[in-house]
């Protein structure tokens, strides 16, 4: 049993609170990504799980064991460090074999295990090299090999792909997905790259300000963001946010009415200030009827054009249109939003989603405690 | 112009080398000259006859060998003490956070800034009250106190250059803290340890003032003070013996340097620098 639980975990460095209150339950065999902007506490979370950092309060469990006071080597975990942390004076083979050596596995048995891990990662020709003599991608694979050579309960990976070039990164991404499928082990993967999180993870914990903002499948994170932070963090460009009010079941901004799908909200839709969220691809740019806006910028990436538009209240939003579409900067246009793709959030600082379902709602209610 | 440049550069370099090496050369030459040739004017550059009589006299008729042995014990013990204490101290300063850590590091360095003359009287009193005055061990302690601050800072900066994650990785891989130190930190720190050891050994080997004040019995006198008091009196300086003694005093340093030099250049691969 190798599920992982953080219960009410708080972590402060002196005065500075890095993690306010962390609650996560990761199931056995799951591939979970911790995603968030720099400094949000992702590494700290992972390092606490590894035993390299101690929670100020709260409980961390691996399987049925509370591991708070357990030394890193006794937790039966393997970790890939962001910096790889390869032992410079040891050869590739010695690096990969080190965890086995420390567990008293000797001779043939160790050599065979190292050989197997090396073959899996196509490192078998490099076993006698020193880490300095390897390319970044090779070093990264050695770091992975050192983790894979054992059969730990949980794999911890801290931005393992961040130092690689784009091509190697997408290759390693596929490799890791394949590896996880084959091993079926619990993996906790830290990244600030949403593409990595969206493509690899079975569930993503979006972190910000020392808290988990949403912990859900990539699909739910994208299509039903739990609050304004998640909405504004996921997607390139992210979801647009327009301030306005609800009056009699309609969204009004700058005196213009935007139709919404009322059935999705039941009684959550009360009159008052709200924030409307809409993804760039759910915006249609036309003439005549709709929200008036001015074209400010049109960026053609080759297969699509990202248009930056300015609303009368100076809010800037972006829309995604086909590449062939010509839009002149400075021209006035009218926008319509796909009613099924509209999200409404509270106008407060946390900006919770209005129609949260029960699961996400529990996260939010815990946050507001 | 193109061909002139290297010639000029070489000339300048060799002039400098000769200037620096001249006293050393003169020392060796003098130690090999017979007594009769010593004060001849003009001086002879290449001795007319080479003699080892001064070396022989030094070894057979004076307590030179005893002084030498004392110096070896003194410098080696000091080096061992300083390296062990310095490494542990630097590890603690770099890896752990505790109250007063920085203050302590600064205070330690502060003692290094004071001239030894200021420290020597209190040090003498302390060593005397420990019953260690006039013993080699007392002198070893004294040398340790003045070499340690700098060694600590030297090792600290080396230690800071070792990524913390290297040690963390070893811990996750199942090593104990001691194991991680032995397997990962120590090999990385080796260049730093060698530099520190070299520095400490030379300092202790050449130290004069503490030896002069803290030790006065023949049996524990090291080379520096021993040779001085033996060969230099108010009326007479035994130049040829002094030069022979100086040559032999320099030998260990040259040997240690030569040995560690080859290690520093070839052995660094084992220390983790690109190999
Ligand atoms: N040892 C420490 N002492 C003091 N503050 C720390 C320490 N370690 C981390 N922090 C702080 O805790 C916060 C979270 O750090 P953490 O390394 O977990 O961020 P992260 O989410 O991994 O960011 P990144 O994406 O940049 O790696 C940061 O604001 C950081 O400055
Ligand atoms: Mg990090």
Structure, briefly:
The complex is a heterodimer of chains A (369) and B (275). Chain A is of the alpha+beta class and 369 residues long.
Characterization of this structure:
- The complex is a heterodimer of chains A (369) and B (275).
- Chain A has helices spanning 42-50, 92-101, 107-120, 136-148, 166-183, 194-200, 218-223, 228-233, 358-367, and strands at residues 4-13, 16-26, 31-35, 57-62, 65-66, 77-80, 154-158, 186-191, 203-208, 211-216, 240-247, 250-253, 256-258, 272-278, 283-286, 291-300, 304-310, 316-322, 332-337, 342-346.
- Chain A has 369 residues and is of the alpha+beta class.
- Chain A has 2 domains: 4-223, Rossmann fold (3-Layer(aba) Sandwich); 238-360, OB fold (Dihydrolipoamide Acetyltransferase, E2P), CATH 2.40.50.140.
- In chain A, β9 and β10 (211-216) form a beta hairpin.
- With 275 residues, chain B is an all-alpha fold.
- In chain B, α10 (223-231) runs antiparallel to α11 (239-266).
- Chain B is built from 12 helices and no strands.
- Residues 266-275 of chain B have low confidence and may be disordered.
- Chains A and B meet through β6 of A and α7, α8 and α12 of B.
- The site of adenosine-5'-triphosphate has 12 residues of chain A, from β2 and α1.
Tell me the name of the CATH class of the largest domain in chain B.
Mainly Alpha
Instruction: Please give the domain count of chain B.
Output: 2
Shape of chain A: elongated
Give the termini distance of chain A in whole angstroms.
31 Å
Q: Which cofactors or ions or other ligands sit in this model?
A: adenosine-5'-triphosphate, magnesium ion
Name the helix and strand elements of chain B from N-terminus to C-terminus, one letter apiece.
HHHHHHHHHHHH
